[in-house]
Amino acid sequence: MLRNNPVELIGINVSNFETSLIFYRDTLGLEAAWINDEKSTAAFNAGNLYLLIRENPREASSGGARIYFTVERIRSMRSRLHDSGVSVSALINDAQGESFDFSDPDGNRLGLFEPSKD
Description:
The chain is of the alpha+beta class. It contains three helices and eight strands. It is globular and about 40 Å long.
């Protein structure tokens, strides 16, 4: 369950990764927690959470931000949501952990994230 779980990161889709990286890092002055040029993603320290940018031109102009909640046992949570009739994305696995996306009944985009154990 999501009781008292902190928001880990807020994801923003961008149309051009390099331009956005320069904007958030150099223009706004956010400290990069990590940058993955290969996947065109970066996370910035933003207080008690991360601001994630991910190149996704199709969704960038739609105001495609997502709120990610930190969970344990992400695979069981994904199955639980799927079994409840929620359309869930494929599981994304990278060095930072695993995540997947879904929408609430009003179409607000959400995601669950489980940090890697390393």
